Amino acid sequence: MPQYKQFPLPDTAEGLTEAEILTWHVKPGDTVTVNQIIVEIETAKAAVELPCPWAGVVTELLAEPGQTVEVGVPIITIDTDPGGAAAPAPVTPAAAESNGTSSGKIGEEMPGGRIATLVGYGPKSGAAKRRARKDAPAVAKAAAASITPAAPVVRAQEPVAAPVAAPAPVQAPGGYVPLAKPPVRKLAKDLGVDLYALTGSGPDGVITREDVESAVSAPAPAAAAPSFVDNGSRERRVPIKGVRKATAQAMVDSAFTAPHVTEFLTVDVTPMMDLRARLKNAPEFRGVKLTPLAFCAKAVILAARRTPDVNATWDAAANEIVYKDYVHLGIAAATPRGLVVPKVRDADRMSLKELAIALDELATVARDGKTAPADMMNGTITITNVGVFGVDTGTPILNPGESAILALGAIRDMPWVVDGEIKIRKICQLALSFDHRVVDGQQGSQFLADVGALLAEPGIAMTY
């Protein structure tokens, strides 16, 4: 007999609560194998490809591209025993809508001997019950007890065109989710109908195609005069989701939790740039992309040894300050998906050459959108290189869980007083933001001065 299994959206990163369906790679009726990529999703961390945990035949897709789904909610139904005895052909949602079988009583026998259910079309005893969408963790645990999905594969996100139709409504307060099949949801999305405003006429309150079409044909209520001037098509709205949503929330949490202090320092980095030019011609650095960021990273790591407070974390729950004897260095990177902060793990154990190679690889992976979610967690201190955009400095906001972030500005030829004479030198501005709960002014100032000194005269590193 057919064996129907539903694959719930897994938690592909620590703390993930939801993800958006980007692209399905299968459709109802397709035969799938174990670990075959079936769908691409976008989380707050990365674009992720999910493999199929079973072999079988796809019977139903339970979410559409562009739809946001909570972790633990089923997204696909698969018949894992399509060759079983008396196995009827799978019925897709579209076919059910067209032949009228979807209007049968849920839980009752349908034409051809099938049993009507809300999701999938497998045998079911007793009357069907409404699926509790908000109980996603419970669903996930129950599913995990019987299956272990293969590990997700992270890859670059291809550009996804913004939908021109009205976006799918978000979940309403109180956990209510309107019941409707994917074809009906798509119809409502195409017609701009809010499913939350409808009362389903189908069994157990299921919203039908007729309900959506009736809502479109119904006369619209008189609207109040708009308080704005229509400016035609000179505006466009983009849903707040994915990396942008996660970044915004993280910055708000940080700005209104940690008391920020920002200090600035202007540095003559001519000696550092001279050393860089010499090292680029050295045999051991041949083929290595040696950037000012690599020197700044090394300076931050060395300076943190003398001021460990900048590499510590304020743990409000435990009422403790956690000092880290390692440096997971975050590098803020601008990508097509938005701002991400991947980490160089155990950067304090790396030489300048190793740091330069790690930073180059990190930047390449981030630009391609292939940074794994785990590689953007648990940083200890961050550098944001605003100088690559020609910007002198800024007031960076701390990454949540960290106590310091350094902004590296552009390196410019500027007049500078050297031994009482004005000369043209390589000048750079630094800006350090720190959490004043952990780092006092003296400590923050000492750390920034140490970083500046190491960039102004790299030979000082010999004394550290």
Automatic annotation (TrEMBL):
Mind listing the UniProt keywords for this protein, alphabetically? Answer: Acyltransferase, Lipoyl, Transferase
User: Pfam families this protein is in?
Assistant: 2-oxoacid_dh, Biotin_lipoyl, E3_binding
Q: Which InterPro entries match?
A: 2-oxoA_DH_lipoyl-BS (IPR003016), 2-oxoacid_DH_actylTfrase (IPR001078), 2-oxoacid_DH_E2_comp (IPR050743), Biotin_lipoyl (IPR000089), CAT-like_dom_sf (IPR023213), E3-bd_dom_sf (IPR036625), PSBD (IPR004167), Single_hybrid_motif (IPR011053)
EC number(s) stated in the UniProt entry for this protein: 2.3.1.-
Q: Can you give the residue ranges of the Lipoyl-binding domain?
A: 4-79
Region described as Disordered? 84-109
Gene3D superfamilies (UniProt xref)? 2.40.50.100, Chloramphenicol acetyltransferase-like domain, E3-binding domain
Q: Where in the numbering of this chain does the Peripheral subunit-binding (PSBD) domain appear?
A: 179-216
Q: What class of enzyme is it?
A: transferase
The residue ranges crossing the membrane are none
Q: Bias category Low complexity: which stretches?
A: 84-96
What domain of life is recorded for the organism?
Bacteria
Q: Which cofactor does it need?
A: (R)-lipoate
Q: Which family does it belong to?
A: Belongs to the 2-oxoacid dehydrogenase family.
Q: What is this protein called?
A: Dihydrolipoamide acetyltransferase component of pyruvate dehydrogenase complex
Organism of this sequence? Lentzea indica
